[in-house]
C-alpha cells in the first residue's frame, strides 16, 4: 500500500516566513472568483490578521463563497466568538473546531487555504504577525519567527481542496443534497487546471479516522530509503520509539542525520527533547538547538530528492492526536531550495556536543528523564496508548 499518492505537473513555490507567505496568500484571495477554504490553528486580528480578514470580506462581498475553520483552543474562546460574529456579518461561513473539547483532546493544527480549486497553501504558518509570539500574543519577538509554507498550483490543489471540503462537512451540518452538489462541483472543475512546471508531489493528512499514522509512515519510509543525508527541522521533538529508531538506523548505515530543534519556547518540552539527546548523539546524529527566535518550521529534506513542508511537528501531539497536513515533494530543485533555507537556520543554531552534554549536572539530566516519563504517561493516556 502506497503511503503517498503523488501527482505530476504541479507548480510549487516554497514560502519562508510571513514575508513570503502573506503577500502570496492575499494575492490569491484578492483574485478569487468562486470559493475559498481557509483552516488555521491561530487566527489573531493584529495588523497582519486584519489584512487577511479584510481580503476575505471583500471576496465575500463580490460573491465568493468563503469558508473559515479556526481552532477553539489555538485561537482562544473569546476571540473565536468575536471572529465568528464578524465573519457571519460579512457573509463568511465560519466553523470553530472542537469547542470545549467535545471531541476529546484533538486539535485542528493544520494550516490550509484553497482558492478556486486551483491554488492551495499548506504549511505551518498561522494567521498572525511573524514578530508576535504565538502563545503570548502581547509579547513581540526580537527576530521574525522562522516558518515555512508551500504554494501549490496544479492537480495536487484538487486533492487539497477535497480534503478541505471533507473537514468542512465534518464540522458543519449540511443536507445530503448539498453534499452531493458540492462533490459534483469538484468533478466539474477537474479540467480547469493549467499545465505547470513538472513537480512530483503528494498531500498527506493525519486524523483519527482514516489516516491515523499516515504522516509518520511517510517519514519512516523516506528515512528508511535515505542513502546520504537526512535534515529534519521541528519546533518540538518527542516522537515515538519507531521514529527515533529510524533516525538511529539511518545514522548507523552511514547516513548523515541532522536534527534542528526549536529551543526556549516551553522549558518542559525542551527537557523532553533533551532526554533523547544521549542516545541520539551516541548513534552519531548531529543535534542543533535554535533559540535566536521562535522556530516554528516543520520541514525535512532527504538526499536532496525528498522533502516535506507542513504543520506536523515531530512530537506526540502532531503524530498521534491532532489534525495535521503536509505536502511531500519528490523534486530536486525544490528539495535543494528548502535544504539551503534549513542550512541558513543551522548556521544560527548551537550544536550539542556529546562531551558538554554529558558534563551537565546530574540533577538536570535526572529532570530530563523525569520530564519524558511524565510526557509519555500523558500522551499514552490521551492517545489511548497510540504513543509508543
UniProtKB/TrEMBL annotation:
Species whose genome carries this gene: Oxalobacter formigenes OXCC13
* Family classification: Belongs to the phospholipase D family. Cardiolipin synthase subfamily. ClsB sub-subfamily.
Its membrane topology? Peripheral membrane protein
- Name the chain's protein: Cardiolipin synthase B
Give the lineage.
Bacteria, Pseudomonadati, Pseudomonadota, Betaproteobacteria, Burkholderiales
Which enzyme type, at the first EC level? transferase
Instruction: Give the active-site positions.
Output: 109, 111, 116, 296, 298, 303
Which molecular-function annotation in GO is an example for this chain?
A: cardiolipin synthase activity
Record-level GO BP terms: cardiolipin biosynthetic process
Gene name as annotated: clsB
**The organism's place on the tree of life at top rank:** Bacteria
Subcellular localization(s) per the UniProt record: Cell membrane
Amino acid at each position: 500500500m502506497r503511503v503517498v499518492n503523488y501527482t505530476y505537473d504541479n507548480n510549487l513555490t516554497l514560502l519562508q516566513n510571513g514575508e513570503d507567505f502573506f503577500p502570496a496568500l492575499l494575492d490569491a484571495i484578492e483574485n478569487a472568483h468562486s470559493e475559498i477554504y481557509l483552516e488555521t490553528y491561530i487566527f489573531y486580528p493584529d495588523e497582519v490578521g486584519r489584512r487577511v480578514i479584510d481580503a476575505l470580506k471583500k471576496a465575500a462581498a463580490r460573491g465568493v463563497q468563503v469558508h473559515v475553520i479556526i481552532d477553539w483552543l489555538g485561537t482562544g474562546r473569546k476571540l473565536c466568538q468575536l471572529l465568528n460574529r464578524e465573519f457571519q456579518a460579512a457573509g463568511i461561513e465560519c466553523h470553530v473546531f472542537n469547542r470545549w473539547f467535545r471531541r476529546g483532546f484533538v486539535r485542528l493544527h493544520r494550516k490550509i487555504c484553497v482558492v478556486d480549486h486551483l491554488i492551495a497553501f499548506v504549511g505551518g504558518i498561522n494567521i498572525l504577525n511573524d514578530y508576535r509570539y504565538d502563545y503570548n500574543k502581547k509579547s513581540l519577538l526580537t527576530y521574525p519567527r522562522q516558518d515555512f509554507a508551500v504554494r501549490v498550483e496544479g492537480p495536487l490543489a484538487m486533492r487539497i481542496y477535497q480534503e478541505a471540503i471533507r473537514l468542512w462537512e465534518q464540522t458543519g451540518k449540511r443536507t445530503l443534497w448539498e453534499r452531493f452538489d458540492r462533490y459534483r462541483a469538484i468533478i466539474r472543475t477537474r479540467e480547469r487546471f493549467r499545465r505547470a512546471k513538472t513537480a512530483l508531489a503528494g498531500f498527506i493528512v493525519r486524523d483519527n479516522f482514516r489516516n491515523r499514522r499516515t504522516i509518520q509512515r511517510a517519514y519512516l519510509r523516506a528515512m528508511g530509503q535515505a542513502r546520504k543525508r537526512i535534515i529534519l527541522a521541528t519546533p518540538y521533538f518527542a516522537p515515538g520509539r519507531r521514529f527515533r529508531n529510524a533516525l538511529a538506523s539511518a545514522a548507523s548505515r552511514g547516513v548523515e542525520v541532522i536534527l534542528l530543534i526549536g529551543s526556549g519556547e516551553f522549558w518542559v518540552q525542551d527537557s523532553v527533547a533533551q532526554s533523547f539527546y544521549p542516545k541520539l548523539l551516541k548513534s552519531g546524529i548531529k543535534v542543533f538547538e535554535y533559540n535566536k527566535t521562535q522556530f516554528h518550521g516543520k520541514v525535512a529534506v532527504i538526499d536532496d530528492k525528498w522533502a516535506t513542508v507542513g504543520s506536523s511537528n515531530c512530537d506526540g501531539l502532531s503524530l498521534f492526536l491532532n489534525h495535521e497536513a503536509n505536502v511531500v515533494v519528490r523534486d530536486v530543485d525544490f528539495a535543494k531550495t528548502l535544504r539551503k533555507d534549513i542550512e541558513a537556520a543551522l548556521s544560527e543554531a548551537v550544536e550539542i556536543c556529546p562531551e558538554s552534554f554529558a558534563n551537565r549536572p546530574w540533577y538536570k539530566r535526572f529532570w530530563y528523564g523525569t520530564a519524558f516519563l511524565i510526557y509519555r504517561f500523558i500522551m499514552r493516556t490521551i492517545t489511548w496508548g497510540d504513543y509508543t
